[in-house]
Amino acid sequence: MPIKKRTLIILTLFTCLGVKAQRFNPVNPDASAGVKKTLNFLYNIKGKYILSGQQNYNSDLNVFSDSAKIIAGKYPAVWGSDFINWGDKDLGPQIVNEAIKKSREGYLITLMWHEGKPTDEPPYSFEKNVKGKMTDAEWNELVTPGTALNKRWLAQIDVIAGYLKQLKTAGVTVLWRPYHEMNGVWFWWGNRKGENGIAKLWKMMYDRYTNYHHLNNLVWVWGANGLRDIPFDEAYDYKDYYPGAAYVDVLGADVYHFDYEQDDYEALLKLANGKPIALTETGELPNPEILKVQPQWTWFMVWTSWLWTDNTHNRVKQIYNLPQTLNHDEVKAKLDSLK
């Protein structure tokens, strides 16, 4: 192959992988260099590549990422965990330590939080306090600044802000995914439509974390649930819960049971209006046929043990070894080159 032609091919590949910066604006005008680098990377791979990812319980921070390596022979590029309290156990400190370690090893970090209902006292249980319900009156008090319930909520989110500050100090960029599946009916923050609903609570958290705590290390990931009409387990139209482009860097969907509906994908893309989208949670992984018609997903994240229960080893190997899948080693090298 002539040298000029070979050089052109190499330069084209590097451009596709994001070496040349694409212009964009993080929603936080004071976003850190790490946020800008991460978003730059996501913008430049969208439509071309997908990052592998794996969620881990905060009580077992590496079990499922390690399992992905055992099955597929490669570590996932994205490491995830959750600030949820298991009973009276606050595992925030060990999440922080592991996230710092993983970030230094070249993983992208995504964190979330199954927050206990602010009307309740800890210790929290998943069924009673995370999936509990709030009355309309309680919700209105929650989103009204200065009320007793609003102050309780501020105290809650400030605890997590403390952990995110430790990650900021350590130079860790976080794909921050609060109030996930907000268009579903199961969590206390779920199915609250309109300006006074979850969109307002999202904006309140954004303001507290960005303008009060100066958490400039966060990429704001809005992760809804894939649309569905199962009785008592519904998830409704994305647009009714979206806080707006000024408050979201990346949009996502949680898709389980191979429910990769093309209409839902197109609806999310339309709402994103050019922003990156991601499979923020998956049960059963998409196959190559799905990814061919849904190429804009920038990462997938298998939910904990669903790696075992909802996927065959062949399915895991298949997606980890697709030409368009970027795993840990490729992403680490890529991010290192952008320093």
Describe this entry's structure for a reader.
- With 339 residues, this protein is an alpha/beta fold.
- The protein has a single domain (36-337), classed as Alpha-Beta Barrel (TIM Barrel), CATH 3.20.20.80.
- The chain has helices spanning 3-16, 33-45, 63-72, 92-104, 126-130, 136-142, 148-169, 198-212, 262-272, 288-293, 306-309, 313-320, 328-337, and strands at residues 50-51, 53-55, 78-82, 108-112, 174-177, 218-225, 250-255, 277-282, 297-302, 325-326.
- The strands form two sheets. It has an eight-stranded parallel β-sheet with strand order 2-3-4-5-6-7-8-9, sandwiched between helices. A two-stranded parallel ribbon has the order 1-10.
- Strand 8 (277-282), helix 10 (288-293) and strand 9 (297-302) form a beta-alpha-beta unit.
- Helix 4 (92-104) packs parallel to helix 7 (148-169).
- The radius of gyration is 20 Å and the shape is globular.
- The chain starts with a helix and ends with a helix.
